[in-house]
Structures are given as structure tokens and as C-alpha cells.
Amino acid sequence: MPAGKTTLIVHDFDKDPTIVDYGEYPKITTENTGETTWIKFHNSLYETPGVPTTLRLQYQYQYILDNDTGERSEWFNVGEPVLFGEATGWEPVTVNKRIEISSGYGYNYYRIRVIGDDGSDQGSLQVFRWSLNDYSDYWTSYVGSYRQHILSRYRVGNSSYYGRVYQYTAL
């Protein structure tokens, strides 16, 4: 193991684990409370058991613009697209707090886009859960936290272990 904080992802007991360096935690200093959470997205998705995906994946998020109406922002990228075994850096993600005078939490919505070799958007990542469906999810996000979003399991052929993102708190 390298020195420093790292994430060790065991994705196959017959293969070396993926080791991702935490790197430096970025910071934003504000006069009051902030509006940023930090996400590091990992791609550990398999197509089927023993077959890592070859897809280049772009993780994206939306945040709620207006807590009364539920209106959402446009989609924003979380870092650059990643291949199997890769991760983004710590990427800033905007949080619109649900309670104004608080340290803050809000809801963020996520999707994953498939990026072609030429850099073009090939559409939503589809995962098999009784049928092929576009991947989407939402998480409660906390201002100032650092969370890892790890995409794992199987994209096709297994509705019990369908591809999904797991969230872990780093700091």
C-alpha cells in the first residue's frame, strides 16, 4: 500500500484490488455556510461476472433550484469520464440546502452517460434490473462532506446484483 489515505476496492478475489489515492481534500472558505459537497466517482462495474466493463462513463448530477417547486438545475459533470478501475478527483457538487439556516443538506440526482471513443455522448448507461433501464439515483448531500460514489456489480445478466452506486463517507 502506498503511504497516505487511499481507497482499496476489492472487485475480484482473483485480481489485484484497485487502489485510489485520496489526494488532497479541496476546500472552499465561506463567510456563512457553504453550498458544496465533494464527490469522488469510481468505476468498478462489471458487464457480467469476471468481465469488467469497457465503457467510458461520465457521472452527472442535478440539484434542486427551488425547494418549494422542486425545479431542478441542468445536468453537470462530476469530473471527467472514467474507465473500469479509474476514479475522478474530488469534484465539487452544488447543494441547495433544504433548511436555510443550518449546516446544510439537500437532494442531488445522479445519472451516468456512456462516452464514445470520439468523446461523444452515447446515451444513458443501462443496467439490467428485470429489464434494461437507464441508471439513475438520488442521494442526500451534506454541505462540506466528502463522499465516494462507487459504481459496482453487474451491468447485464443478473437482476439480483444489478449495477448500482454505493456511497461511502471519506471525511
Structure description:
The chain is mainly beta. It is 0% helix and 44% strand. The chain is built from no helices and 15 strands. It has strands at 6-9, 18-21, 36-43, 46-48, 51-52, 56-63, 76-77, 91-94, 105-115, 121-124, 126-128, 132-134, 136-142, 146-152, 164-169. Strands 6, 7, 9, 10 and 13 form a 5-stranded antiparallel beta sheet that branches. Strand 11 (126-128) and strand 12 form a beta hairpin. The radius of gyration is 17 Å and the shape is globular. The mean pLDDT is 87.
How much helicity do the residues have?
under 10%
> Uncertain spans, ≥5 residues at pLDDT below 50?
none
Largest sheet: 5 strands, antiparallel
Mass-distribution shape = globular
Average pLDDT rating: 87
Summing up helix and strand content along with how strands pair, one would put the structural category as mainly beta
Beta content comes to 35-45%
**How many separate helices?**
0
Give Rg in angstroms: 17 Å
- What is the terminal-to-terminal distance? 20 Å
What string gives the helices and strands in order? EEEEEEEEEEEEEEE
Number of strands: 15
Features:
globular, 15 strands, mainly beta, five-stranded antiparallel beta sheet, four-stranded mixed beta sheet, 171 residues, single chain
